[in-house]
Amino acid sequence: MNTKLSRLSIKDAILKIAIGAAAGLSAVAVSAQVSAQESAQEVTWSGEVAAIFQEKCQECHRPNSIAPMSLLTYAEAKPWAPIIRYRVENRVMPPWHVNPEIGIQQFTNDRGLTEEQRQTILTWVDQGAPEGDPSLAPEPLEFNDALVWRLEDQMGSAPDLVVESEPFDLAATTQDKWFRPTTPTGLEEERWVKAIEIRPKNEESRKVVHHALAFLLQQEDGKRGLPEDVDVPFGPSLFMEWAVGKAGQIFRPDTGKLMMPGSSINWEVHLHANGERVQNAQVELGVWFHDEPPEHRTILSMFDAQGPNSLDIPPGEIAVTQGTFALTAPARIENFQPHMHMRGKAMSMEAIYPNGQREVLSFVDNFQWNWQINYVYDEEIAPIVPAGTIIVTTAWHDNTENNPHNPDPNQWVGWGDRTVDEMAHNWVDVTYLGQEEYERLIAERSSAAR
Ligand code: HEC
User: Fold this and answer.
1) 40 pLDDT band (50/70/90 cuts)?
2) Closest approach atom of ligand 1 to CA 69
3) Ligand 1 geometric centre to CA of 21 (Å)
4) 117: pLDDT confidence band, cut at 50, 70 and 90?
């Protein structure tokens, strides 16, 4: 076990005690709880838990992947049972931190536990994490560790363009690193993007690349492929985000992103040391193009939860900031990706419609700064909103000592690039629609609902 690991575990244990004490659980209350759980039906590794771990944990918790320990077998999982309980109870693991009751719940990339799975794991640990009858356990999964483009089958060919990041030399044990090189795409003509995938470039990188973002940097004079009345601030556009288990992104039919000649990719590669030095930690981006320009253009917007220079997070306090963004044309909102740093605690995205109605679209109430997760809505549910809708972004930063990730609760914190500074924005892919298209899509949805 490396030192980083045991430190985390201890922190979990301390937290657990602190929370138990704060909840005022007496020894009697605790034992009453335990006996209630004991009388529940027996839950075992072989019977129920192994199948859940196969579905929701093992992609990361196995050799050759990013998590610190393997959870493939009973023998591997059992010693971690108390820490698993704590992480699962608090919805930190698996990494999926959107509130399960508030806002949209249908996502294309959902890796959260269902409430039933969650309860099953908790009960299993409370019953002493028994193995049960090994002959009942599901067959072990087979993992394909070959470096392939996962979208190649679906797209029918290898990517049309591959861009790779510079290699990074990562020490065997070190703090997490954020590497931000820039690479020219080499494109000489305008192209419309149909699908994108990022992958680690080699076996070694697979173990240390925690996640990676690719921003598209390009010069644009007009508003190519957008309805007339749209007012979008052009900035660096987030192109693709990669995390373990994510197979890339195929844009919805008739939509795409525009790539200009002379563009480049600005990477943000989050590296997490895994006990071995990796000299060539590297990622690469594969891009598939449309033959013809698609009907709609998807643009990444930064919905800010702060006005200019307005992050002001006093020591020992929970600070709330809010920002608004007006959509000047009808649009489909494709996803929700909050971005904050170590003090980040929660973020919500709310819509105020032109008729005054308000709706919370998504709420991450359990933000974990080392997981920058993109919650992608299912196509049937992705909000289609009228021109004049206002998006309200609210961010909470916890600068108290109760935040286990807080490096120093006595420090004032403001906006900045370093992880000890803060940010508060939400990356959202917005597909702008013409008025007619908007009306057609709304009519289709309401007839489908009937
Ligand atoms: C997308 C990848 C991924 C998935 C899926 C995932 N984990 Fe993790 N897990 C990690 C990584 C990386 C870490 C170490 C960094 C961290 O704590 O965030 C971790 C840490 C943990 C820890 C804490 C270990 C310690 O040192 O204290 C536990 C416990 C855990 N995971 C359990 C689970 C369980 C149980 C599941 C499934 C229900 C699961 N994880 C799903 C990637 C994942």
Assistant:
1) low
2) 24
3) 25
4) very high
Report yes or no on 142 lying in a domain.
no
Do 259 and 341 lie in one domain? The reply is no
In a domain, 304, yes or no: yes
Across 53-62, 117-126, 284-293, 423-432, least confident range = 423-432
Last residue of a domain, one of 136, 161, 194: 136
Does residue 325 share a domain with residue 282? Answer: no
Residues 273 and 313 in one domain: no
204 and 264 in a single domain? The answer is yes
Probe ligand 1: pick from 4, 87, 88, 368, max atoms within 8 Å of CB? 87
Reported pTM = 0.83
pLDDT of residue 220 exceeding 60, the answer is yes
Query: What is the predicted pLDDT for the residue at 183?
Result: 96
Domain for residue 285, yes or no?
Answer: yes
> Which residue has the CA at smallest separation from atom 15 of ligand 1?
67
Instruction: Give yes or no for residue 59 CB within 6 A of ligand 1.
Output: yes
Q: Is 434 in the pocket of ligand 1 (CB under 6 A)?
A: no
Question: End of a domain among 266, 294, 322?
Answer: 294
Over residues 433-444, the pLDDT tens digits come to 888 889 999 999
Q: Whose CA is nearest to atom 26 of ligand 1?
A: 5
Q: Are 258 and 171 contained in the same domain?
A: yes
pLDDT mean over 36-55: 85
**Do 439 and 372 share a domain, yes or no?**
yes
Residue 71 lies in a domain: yes
The residue nearest atom 5 of ligand 1, judged by CA position, is: 57
Ligand 1 atom at shortest distance from the alpha carbon of 87: 29
Q: Is 255 exposed, middle or buried (0-12, 13-18, 19+ CB in 10 A)?
A: buried
Which of 12, 55, 57 to probe ligand 1 with, by most ligand atoms within 8 A of CB? 57
* Residue 335 belongs to domain spanning: 299-449
What domain count does the chain have?
A: 3
Rounded to whole angstroms, how far apart are CA atoms 170 and 276?
Answer: 9
For the Cβ of 15 lying below 6 angstroms from any atom of ligand 1, the answer is no
Atom 3 (ligand 1): residue with closest C-alpha? 60
Write the burial class of residue 99 (CB in 10 Å: 0-12 exposed, 13-18 middle, 19+ buried).
middle
Residues 268 and 313 in one domain: no
Q: Are residues 288 and 333 in the same domain?
A: no
Query: How confident is the model over 328-357, as a mean pLDDT?
Result: 94
Per-residue pLDDT at 27: 36
Which of 10, 56, 60 for a ligand 1 pocket mutation test, highest count of atoms within 8 Å of Cβ? 60
Q: 383 CB under 6 A from ligand 1?
A: no
Give the model confidence (pLDDT) of 67-79 as tens digits: 889 999 999 999 9
93 Cβ closer than 6 Å to some ligand 1 atom? yes
Distance 233 CA to ligand 1 centre (A): 37
- Show the tokens assigned to 276: 């071995």
CATH of the domain at 227: 2.60.120.230
